[in-house]
Amino acid sequence: MNLFLWRHAEAEDGSNDLARALTARGREQAAHMARWLSAFAPADLRILVSPAVRTRQTADALGLSYEVVESLAPGASPATVLTEAQWPTATSNVLVVGHQPTLGMAAALALTGHPLSWSVRKGGIWWLANRQRDDDHQVVVRAVVTPETV
After folding, report:
1. CATH number assigned to the domain comprising residue 87
2. Where do runs of H (alpha helix) occur along the chain?
3. How many domains does one find in the chain?
4. Residue range 86-106, pLDDT digits in tens
5. Domain limits at 33?
6. Does residue 51 sit within a domain?
7. Distance (Å, rounded) from C-alpha 26 to C-alpha 39?
């Protein structure tokens, strides 16, 4: 299983958190990262997206269908992210488009078993893979990319 954790791109400020839209820079970041995902992500990608406008706009840059998952809204727990993605046992590859600090904590939980405060930059993607080697369950960090490094 491959798990991609994609933080929404730069968004406008606003008091209604769920209604905040991407800035012009954020739309560019999302398009840039969507091109990277299109080149590297497996074709059978299941895409789960927070209901926030900025996450849906980020996911829209891929031009693929996705599921809006209410439990991935801002403030979701890192365990919820991994549960919704069915990590590490899903038979499909999963992309979650969500928020900080949840995504950083989900990456830490997947890698260490503890929801540590790790940072995922705006528009950034963490690509984790799960594999079995003999009796050993392993998590592999395949890539950590940002709009500035791609």
Report:
1. 3.40.50.1240
2. 24-40, 53-60, 78-85, 102-112
3. 1
4. 999 998 999 999 999 999 999
5. 2-145
6. yes
7. 20
